[in-house]
Amino acid sequence: MHEQEIRTYAGLMEELQLTGLEVEADGVRVRLERLHAPAAPVVVSQTPVPAAAAPAAAPKAPAESGVVEVTSPMVGVFYSAPAENAEPYVTVGSKVKKGDVLCIIEAMKLMNEITADCDGTVLDIGAGNNQVVDYGHVLFRIRKEQP
C-alpha cells in the first residue's frame, strides 16, 4: 500500500474520530491505530495477508421472502435528511419507488445519495442520524412490491 493511501485513511480516521482502522488491499493488510487523545500519532502496521487466511464470507441469515436489504457501500456518516432541520427522506412505513433517495452517507467530505433498488415499503431503518456506518451495514429493509 502506498504512503498516500495510508495518509488518506489516517485523515478519514481523524475526521470520523476513529481509534482504529484495518484495511486490506492487494494481499496486504494495514492496521492504523490511534491512542485515545485526539492529537495522538497514528501507529501504522503493515503485514502481508496469506492467501489461505482470507476470511470466508459469514453465512447470512436467509432474508425474509420479498424483503430487500439496502446496505452501505462504504464507511461514512449516515444522514437521514438533506439538511439538519429538514424532514427525513423516508420513515418506517414510507412507500418508495426505485431510484428514490433513502439517505446520504458522507465519506471523506463527499455526500453520497443511497437510493432504493426497488419499489416497496420501508420496514426498518438500521441506522440513526449522524451515526457512523461500515461497509455492508444494513441501512434499510424494504418489502418489495409485487408486480
UniProtKB/TrEMBL annotation:
Pathway: Lipid metabolism; fatty acid biosynthesis
InterPro entries in the record: AcCoA_biotinCC, Biotin_BS, Biotin_Carboxyl_Carrier/Decarb, Biotin_lipoyl, Single_hybrid_motif
Domain Lipoyl-binding: 67-143
PROSITE patterns, per database record: BIOTIN, BIOTINYL_LIPOYL
Annotated Gene Ontology cellular component terms: acetyl-CoA carboxylase complex
SUPFAM superfamilies: Single hybrid motif
Gene Ontology MF terms in the entry: acetyl-CoA carboxylase activity
Highest taxon, organism lineage: Bacteria
Keyword terms: Biotin, Fatty acid biosynthesis, Fatty acid metabolism, Lipid biosynthesis, Lipid metabolism
A GO biological-process term: fatty acid biosynthetic process
Function: This protein is a component of the acetyl coenzyme A carboxylase complex; first, biotin carboxylase catalyzes the carboxylation of the carrier protein and then the transcarboxylase transfers the carboxyl group to form malonyl-CoA.
The name this protein goes by in its record: Biotin carboxyl carrier protein of acetyl-CoA carboxylase
